[in-house]
Amino acid sequence: MNKELQCTLLSDGSSDKALIPILTWLLEQHLNICTIHIDRAQLERLPHPPKTLIDKIQYCYNTYLLPKRAEANRETL
Asked: What pTM value is reported for the model?
């Protein structure tokens, strides 16, 4: 059975896309999953992007794993 993990990286800017290969490697090392897809949430492209961390997470809710960079947003959940 071909298992798949779909993730969305919630970050502040486009430069954080450099984290995608690192996250992919990390997940491949620790999970026994055949296919890993990681996308970056490009919320800054929206006409009215969500402001709070909770709103950003709710916008990205359709993924199973939502990595968040510690400095990306100082809000707590």
From this structure: 0.65
3 state DSSP class of 31:
coil
Show me where the domains of the chain are located: 4-59
CB 73 within 8 A of CB 12: yes
Query: Other CB atoms closer than 10 Å to residue 41's CB: what's the count?
Result: 20
The whole-angstrom separation of Cα 75 and Cα 77 is 7
pLDDT tens-digit series, residues 33-44 = 778 889 888 888
Q: What is the pLDDT of residue 47?
A: 93
Distances 67 to 24, 50, 70 between C-alpha atoms, Å = 11, 17, 9
Calculate the alpha carbon distances from 26 to 9, 33, 38, 61, 75 in Å: 14, 12, 12, 22, 25
